[in-house]
Amino acid sequence: MEIIKPTETDFPRLIDIWEKSVTATHDFISGEYIKKIKSLLPEFFEIVDLYAATISEHGIIGFSGIAEGKIEMLFIDPRWFGQGTGKLLVEHAIKKINATQVDVNEQNTGAYKFYRKMGFRIVSRSETDSMGKPYPILHLSYQPSGTLNTAKS
């Protein structure tokens, strides 16, 4: 598995991965809202730095979008859940781009557990998502276990 910089010609595949991933993990979001966000994805792709995980014989299997030190998107084709793709993309974001923030839907408990395992901790919570919809958001910050409570008393 390797990480590449996708181009605009890859957008249809990224949108397909996004839709499959959201359908598999965000059962709390209405179909109408999913369609609205899907229509905005090409615009969102233009304002983040995109990275894609690929396997030569399968092509792109997941992707991330990073902006201003924050993982704005991380979506994996459900066929590749649990096989290290998300971990690879998050580690890349942290180590290569210094992205140490991420937001996650509170109802997406699988994503929250994943980020927690990766070293992220809740720093705050919002009642609504960035579009003002009633989907609570957990704001997380990367805090690897070796850096917590390191101040000497």
Description:
There is one protein chain. The chain is α+β, with helices and mostly antiparallel strands and 153 residues long. The chain has one domain (2-147): Gcn5-related N-acetyltransferase (GNAT) (Aminopeptidase, 3-Layer(aba) Sandwich), CATH 3.40.630.30. The chain contains four helices and seven strands; from the N terminus they run βααβββαβαββ. The chain has a seven-stranded mixed sheet. A hairpin with a 2-residue loop joins strand 3 (59-67) and strand 4 (70-76). The protein starts with a strand and ends in an 11-residue tail after the last strand. Mean pLDDT is 88; it is low at 147-153.
Strand content: 25-35%
Q: From the 3D coordinates, which CATH architecture would you assign?
A: 3-Layer(aba) Sandwich
Number of H/I helices: 4
List SSEs in N-to-C order.
EHHEEEHEHEE
Radius of gyration: 15 Å
Helix content: 25-40%
Poorly predicted tracts of residues:
147-153
Assembly annotation: single chain
N- to C-terminal separation? 44 Å
Instruction: Give the overall shape, derived from the CA principal axes.
Output: globular
Task: Kindly name the structural category.
Answer: alpha+beta
The count of domains is 1
What profile does the largest beta sheet have?
A: 7 strands, mixed
Tell me the layout of helices and strands.
Layout: E1 2-4, H1 11-25, H2 31-46, E2 49-55, E3 59-67, E4 70-76, H3 85-97, E5 101-105, H4 109-117, E6 120-126, E7 137-142
Parallel strand pairs: 4-5
Antiparallel strand pairs: 1-2, 2-3, 3-4, 5-7, 6-7
Helix pairs in contact: 1-2
